[in-house]
Hints:
Strand content: 35-45%
CATH topology: Nuclear Transport Factor 2, Chain: A
Shape: elongated
Number of strands: 6
Mean pLDDT: 85
Amino acid sequence: MQIIIIWRHFTDLKTGYLKNNVMKKIIALLIIATPLLLGNIVYAQSKNNSIEQAVLQLREALLSGNEAKLRAISSSHLSYGHSNGLIENQDAFVATLISGKSGFLTMDLSDQTIDKFDNTAIIRHTLYAKTKNDGVLGEVKLKVLLIFQKDKGSWKLLARQAVKIPI
């Protein structure tokens, strides 16, 4: 109701045209600014979409145990921290998964947050997975911290640390 009263105050009731130059300028500014503001929101979402895609590529690589995919998504400077305290570089990380010594059978990610700063992204999520380690089936629920860095236009996993949480 108040909007209608304000609108009537700034319009000529006979013609319906705006009668105040200030109001004309405000409406013009809103018409111009709205698409620009919405464009920035879409742009920010598209930036996060590329990082989200990198996380999904990492998930796929972990599930498949495919060496090429694992190397493509991870940095040669990788520091991969397991929930038991084991730390692996890229070669050890890849070797463990392709050998079948350790592997994921299923993996669900939830509660994901992404913070992006220039060419670095910090991702946190909860990971629930069914695993097979040394031939033994298991389940794991982890809080995971991932750090991705943009390298030659692609997001690469630079560091990962996991902490066990009760199932």
